[in-house]
């Protein structure tokens, strides 16, 4: 395509996940000419699901929203999408070192529950260590961590070493490792892989005590991208991986395998490691290049298992299970009360993911169902459907729930995470200062990028 035939836009948005869609929509609503380019054959990114033959929906990506996540709740209201309390009636199951306990409540970053069948010494170990952890987290600035003496000390440490120093029991050590893996602290990661500063800041900006998993969405979160995209019409191009961005004083030129586009601005709304795979001319600042080499996605697969009914409720169980079972450490009832079907979501993370992924298809399925049977009974061995969402194997995401920072990255390269480079802006859940790793964080960064571009000169152009 010749230079004179280039399509020219006010802004080209790269990445069709929630943050990219919101940025493109907001700029379009402001009267700006936009184009959204998505590498894969669908929009939505990690906001993705499908409807089963039974009529029950499943979310293969994110699924929960919480009461302090104002922007995603407002978005649901705007599009008339209803939400409902996550199923929580009944007893939670804990499997620990081969023993099975039932108790009421949950102890996931807060301890609003009965003591879950462990010894008084084990429970005291967890609660006292959590108080120390929370105090360190609460003392942090809510903005992105910056270099400073205290932050450098925290960032030079691993979460694994902190766990070893601050817990005395097997249960205490497992609990904090479980929080790093299954809950994530903006990851997830094995404790020996992640910076102590990162997990502390993850707790600060996305605290479990604010109940981010309080509600599910009727029809699934996966329906939202199409509702946003309906406003953009033919301004979305699929199957167009971006290969190169040439940026200069007056704008950018973007090259895919099929086309070239020119714009005054671009928003790259992808995980940082994918943004780093694009060729930039001239090269990006060295700190940005170094950062994108050092910010991996969490190693994660999500499994959705459906049943004719939520049979566990007949046993007085909530469908929530946690523990150090062989295959997974967390599962949760994800059933829509209007369908009558039962759905359990499970998460394979870190080293457990690697062991599970090494199995053949049949053995992977058997491993998941075997663990579910330990939590909820033999009925769990006979599902109606079984779906795997292997996010770690997805080349256009690379993992989930989000990215994490290994030791030393925040205080050496973190300044480059969100800083625009000329006419290039960044968005995505990984860039968020609040609710990173959640829909809310993705939405906030998409809104912020669009607002920054309007302020930078598009208004009145």
How would you characterize the overall build of this protein?
The protein is of the alpha/beta class and 461 residues long. It folds into three domains: 173 residues, FAD/NAD(P)-binding domain (3-Layer(bba) Sandwich), CATH 3.50.50.60; 144 residues, Polyamine Oxidase, Chain A, domain 2, CATH 3.90.660.10; 102 residues, Guanine Nucleotide Dissociation Inhibitor, domain 1, CATH 1.10.405.10. The protein is built from 14 helices and 21 strands. Strands 1, 2, 11, 12, 13, 14, 15 and 21 form an eight-stranded mixed beta sheet that branches. Strands 7-6-17-18-19-16-20 form a seven-stranded mixed beta sheet. A two-stranded antiparallel sheet has the order 3-4. β13 and β14 form a beta hairpin. The longest helix is centred in the last third of the chain and has 20 residues.
Say which CATH homologous superfamily of the largest domain is assigned. FAD/NAD(P)-binding domain
**CATH C-level class of the largest domain:** Alpha Beta
Strand content range = 15-25%
Mass-distribution shape: globular
Total helical elements: 14
Low-confidence stretches: none
Indicate how many domains the architecture comprises. 3
**CATH topology-level fold name of the largest domain:** FAD/NAD(P)-binding domain
Rg, rounded, reads 22 Å
Work out the helicity level.
25-40%
Topology:
Layout lengths: L6 E8 L3 H12 L4 E4 L11 E3 L5 E3 L10 H9 L4 E3 L5 E6 L2 E5 L1 E2 L5 E2 L6 H19 L10 H7 L3 H8 L3 H14 L12 H10 L9 E3 L6 H6 L6 E2 L4 E7 L2 E6 L3 E9 L3 H4 L3 E3 L4 H7 L7 E8 L9 E7 L6 E4 L8 E8 H8 L3 H16 L8 E5 L19 H5 L10 E3 L12 H20 L3
Parallel strand pairs: 1-2, 1-14, 2-11, 6-17, 12-15, 14-21
Antiparallel strand pairs: 3-4, 5-10, 6-7, 8-9, 12-13, 13-14, 16-19, 16-20, 17-18, 18-19
Helix pairs in contact: 1-14, 3-6, 3-7, 5-6
């Amino acid at each position: 395509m010749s230079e004179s035939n280039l399509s020219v836009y006010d802004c080209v948005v790269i990445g069709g996940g929630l943050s990219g869609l919101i940025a493109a929509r907001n700029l379009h609503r402001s009267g700006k000419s936009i184009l959204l380019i998505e590498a894969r054959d669908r929009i939505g990114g990690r906001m993705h699901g499908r409807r089963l033959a039974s009529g029950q929906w499943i979310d293969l990506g994110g699924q929960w929203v919480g009461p302090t996540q104002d922007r995603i709740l407002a978005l649901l209201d705007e599009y008339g999408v209803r939400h409902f309390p996550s199923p929580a009636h009944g007893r939670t199951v804990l499997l620990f070192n081969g023993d099975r306990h039932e108790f009421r409540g949950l102890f996931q970053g807060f301890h609003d529950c009965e003591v879950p069948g462990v010894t008084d010494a084990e429970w005291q170990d967890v609660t006292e260590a959590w108080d120390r952890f929370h105090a360190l987290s609460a003392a942090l600035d809510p903005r992105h961590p910056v270099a400073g003496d205290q932050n450098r000390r925290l960032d030079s440490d691993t979460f694994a070493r902190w766990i070893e120093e601050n817990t005395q029991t097997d249960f205490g050590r497992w609990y904090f490792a479980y929080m790093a893996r299954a809950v994530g602290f903006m990851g997830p990661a094995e404790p020996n892989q992640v910076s102590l500063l990162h997990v502390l800041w993850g707790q600060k900006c996305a605290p479990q005590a604010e109940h981010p998993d309080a509600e599910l969405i009727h029809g699934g979160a996966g329906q939202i991208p199409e509702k946003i995209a309906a406003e953009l019409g033919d301004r979305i191009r699929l199957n167009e991986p971006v290969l190169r961005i040439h940026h200069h004083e007056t704008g950018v030129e973007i090259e895919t395998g099929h086309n070239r586009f020119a714009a005054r601005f671009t928003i790259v709304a992808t995980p940082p490691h994918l943004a780093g795979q694009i060729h930039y001319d001239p090269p990006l600042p060295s700190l940005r290049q170094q950062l994108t080499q050092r910010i991996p996605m969490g190693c994660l697969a999500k499994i959705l298992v459906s049943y004719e009914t939520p049979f566990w409720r007949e046993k007085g169980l909530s469908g929530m299970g946690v523990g150090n079972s062989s295959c997974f450490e967390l599962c949760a009832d994800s059933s829509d009360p209007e369908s009558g079907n039962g759905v359990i979501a499970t998460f394979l993370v870190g080293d457990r993911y690697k062991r599970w992924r090494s199995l053949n298809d049949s053995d992977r399925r058997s491993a998941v169902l075997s663990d579910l049977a330990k939590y909820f009974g033999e009925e769990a061995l006979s599902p109606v459907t079984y779906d795997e969402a292997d996010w770690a194997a997805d080349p256009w995401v690379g993992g989930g729930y989000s990215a994490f920072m290994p030791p030393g990255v925040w205080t050496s390269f973190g300044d480059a995470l969100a800083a625009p480079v000329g006419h290039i802006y960044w968005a995505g859940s990984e860039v968020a200062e609040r609710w990173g790793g959640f829909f809310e964080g993705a939405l906030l960064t998409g809104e912020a990028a669009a607002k920054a571009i309007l302020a930078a000169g598009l208004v009145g152009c």
